[in-house]
Amino acid sequence: MDRMIYLSMAGAKASMQRQDVLSHNLANASTNGCRAELQAFRAVPVRGDGATTRAYALETTVGYSDAAGPVTPTGRNLDVAMQGNSWLAVQAMDGTAASTRAGALDVNAEGLLVLRNGLQVLGDGGPINVPPDSTLQIGSDGTLTAKLATGNPVNIGRLKLVTPATTAQLTRGDDGLFRAADGDLPADANARLQDGALEGSNVSAVETMVSMIAAARQFEQQMKLLQIAQTQGQQTAKLLGTT
After folding, report:
1. The pLDDT value given to residue 119
2. How many Å apart are CA 39 and CA 63, to the nearest integer?
3. Of 93, 84, 38, whose CA–CA distance to 61 is shortest?
4. Residue 53: pLDDT band with limits 50, 70, 90
5. Which of 72, 130, 131, 216 has fewest C-beta within 10 Å?
6. SS3 content of the chain, % helix, strand, coil (to 5)
7. Higher pLDDT, 99 or 231
8. CA–CA dist 100, 159 (Å, integer)
């Protein structure tokens, strides 16, 4: 009896956790540069008095999908889409260096190059200052050229583009940014980008919806097993009480 309870309980919990991951992915299906979160489970034996014949299924985050999202041309000079496995270096709210695939850039009131959400974009030498009343052009290697009102172009630096060696080298933070476990990644001189375009999310809304329906059905099946175990337990208790 307890075997059925452990199996159904672990299965129901796993289905709920899977729903959390899928709902997060679906909510970011239209977020530029979003990477779908992946999930797996591992069996952990229950420790305690007696034989360890039961196991819990615990959630394990295996990382993210590194598949490229669709690239949409925008024609905007401050929009960039990273190519291959390259990432754009930014400064997070806590001051740490982080990476993102979201390439919608802007210039704030202080003349700093930032993301749409206000995070500072990093260059090879730190934050990037854009001259006032200038038009910014971004080369395929991240080179930044500001065309002044006088018509003279000025090189103001280069976007810091990084390329992790493996997918596991970056982990997603609660703020949606990705960080390397061993600290800041070095700039990659061979990294390239496409200007005047944005990369969309690599989350498939249709596939995620189908997975959510399947997870909901699995949860219902596990709950039915719990009800069956409860009914069988009550019936057994009645039989034992009458003998």
Report:
1. 94
2. 7
3. 38
4. low
5. 72
6. 30, 35, 40
7. 99
8. 12
